[in-house]
Design brief:
The structure is a single chain. This protein is α+β, with helices and mostly antiparallel strands. About 50% of the residues lie in helices and about 10% in strands. The protein folds into 3 domains: about 140 residues, Acyl-CoA dehydrogenase/oxidase, N-terminal domain (Butyryl-Coa Dehydrogenase, subunit A, domain 1), CATH 1.10.540; about 100 residues, Butyryl-CoA Dehydrogenase, subunit A, domain 2, CATH 2.40.110; about 170 residues, Butyryl-CoA Dehydrogenase, subunit A, domain 3 (Up-down Bundle), CATH 1.20.140.10. It contains 15 helices and 9 strands. A hairpin with a 5-residue loop joins strand 4 and strand 5. The mean pLDDT is about 95. Keywords: Flavoprotein, Oxidoreductase.
């Protein structure tokens, strides 16, 4: 049996027309949001079918490449959009409205494709940008902190990674993979970017979960994967030691708020998408209830239906405003300090982290309430598999278990009550 038979994938050829249609990337924020909505419209056409078929998203990644969305944050000199993170977050949200899996893949790519900005040197960041943008690469990452760290040994002029991770989002369909591990005999961590399609990266193809089914978030074994010292992000390639000014703790730890806000934004996109999808169904298919003593001719006249939609809409608007504010705070941190990483204080970093934590809490609470509550205003027939309304809740429920939101609430409580900023961790 061939690998194609064992692990079926969607066919990239189905989106080939968009390669020429989107031959130019947008030039401003509104243009990027328009492009993201166009991508979402394409994905929405068969989102239910693709979710149920559960194939590896080769075609969907090709669509993201054709659209230029993978390049939104990169520098213009290499063909990128050079947009700030707050615009990137809005684009993630738009795509996730139509397909949570692809919104998630886009979000993870944007994080991993900018990793060298945060933990690398200026030269490494520039070199990585050129590699990713000129080749229009999609980047995945095998960095799951709940597992044991990958082991890094030193071999001649390079470093060698070994180990395994239970989760590796997008790796199967990626061009490059971010690895992270600890050097043998030390507590020193190293990030490096390596080609995904090599013998030493062995994907388990075991992502068979209830939600986010098209993210290829299964396990991976890393077996003697090599990288040159020049690609050890933030390390001196001659002295083989970390550069303290580059890996300055407050700046380097921004990597975590960046990814946590990716989460919050695709959560919101999924929840907003659920409300929009449900509202179309209600208008077209839901029937008014004739046994309540106040019979209506149409479901859009039913008080309880109007009340629920209004309440969901208000809370999602508030959550979006919060997410936008947090995105602005994060973008300002990047813009305000530029290449001078040492100026970012613990207090500034902590303030950004608590805006992000607030989004995570609110998006989780509201998102789960909306994605389950829409069934109350669509009716029993909306539970049909052909309707596919369940995918929104399944997607959101799956990823909101990534790290317990209760700890974000506690963190925010200590900040609000005691004025304590959070200590950077792999999840804060």
């Amino acid at each position: 049996m061939s690998q194609a038979d064992q692990f079926p994938a969607t066919d990239p050829a189905v989106y080939e027309e968009y390669k020429s249609k989107w031959s130019e990337i947008p030039q401003d924020e509104q243009g990027w949001l328009t492009r993201a909505r166009e991508v979402a419209a394409v994905l929405a056409q068969d989102a239910v079918k693709r979710d149920q078929e559960n194939k590896s998203p080769a075609a969907e990644v090709a669509l993201l490449k054709h659209s230029g969305l993978l390049k939104i944050l990169g520098p213009k000199k290499y063909g990128g959009g050079e947009q700030p993170w707050n615009v990137g977050y809005k684009v993630i949200r738009e795509v996730a409205k139509a397909d949570g899996s692809i919104g998630m893949l886009l979000g993870y790519h944007l994080l991993w494709s900018r990793t060298a900005d945060i933990v690398g040197t200026t030269e490494q960041s520039d070199r990585f940008d050129k590699l990713v943008l000129t080749n229009n690469y999609f980047v995945g990452g095998a960095v799951n902190p709940r597992d044991n760290d990958l082991r890094i040994s030193v071999d001649g002029e390079g470093i060698v990674f070994n180990g395994a991770k239970h989760f590796n989002t997008g790796g199967v369909v990626s061009d490059l993979t971010v690895l992270e591990g600890v050097v043998d005999g030390t507590t020193d961590h190293i990030f490096a970017v390596v080609p995904s399609q090599q013998a030493g990266i062995q994907f388990a193809h075991n992502w068979h979960n209830i939600g986010l089914r098209l993210t290829e978030s299964g396990g991976v074994k890393i077996d003697n994967v090599r990288a040159p010292w020049a690609d050890a992000l933030g390390w001196d390639a001659v002295e083989h030691k970390p550069l303290p000014n580059v890996l300055q703790i407050h700046w380097g730890s921004l990597l975590l708020p960046v990814i946590q806000l990716v989460f919050g934004n695709f959560y919101l996109g999924i929840a907003i998408g659920a409300l929009e999808y449900a509202s179309k169904y209600t208008v077209a298919n839901t029937r008014a209830w004739p046994f309540g003593g106040d019979s209506k001719q149409s479901p859009t006249e039913e008080f309880y239906i109007l009340e629920r939609y209004g309440n969901f809409f208000a809370h999602l608007r508030a959550a979006e405003a919060l997410a936008d504010r947090a995105g602005d705070q994060l973008a300002a941190a990047f813009a305000g300090h530029g290449s001078d990483h040492t100026k970012l204080t613990a207090e500034e970093r902590g303030e950004v982290a608590e805006w992000v934590a607030s989004v995570k809490v609110v998006a989780t609470d509201v998102g789960l309430r909306v994605t389950s509550g829409v069934f109350e205003v669509t009716g029993s027939r909306a539970t049909s598999l052909k309707v596919g309304l369940d995918r929104y809740w399944r997607d959101l429920r799956t990823h909101t278990l990534h790290d317990p939101v209760a700890y974000k609430n506690r963190e925010l409580g200590r900040y609000a009550l005691l004025g304590e900023i959070p200590q950077p961790t792999w999840y804060t």
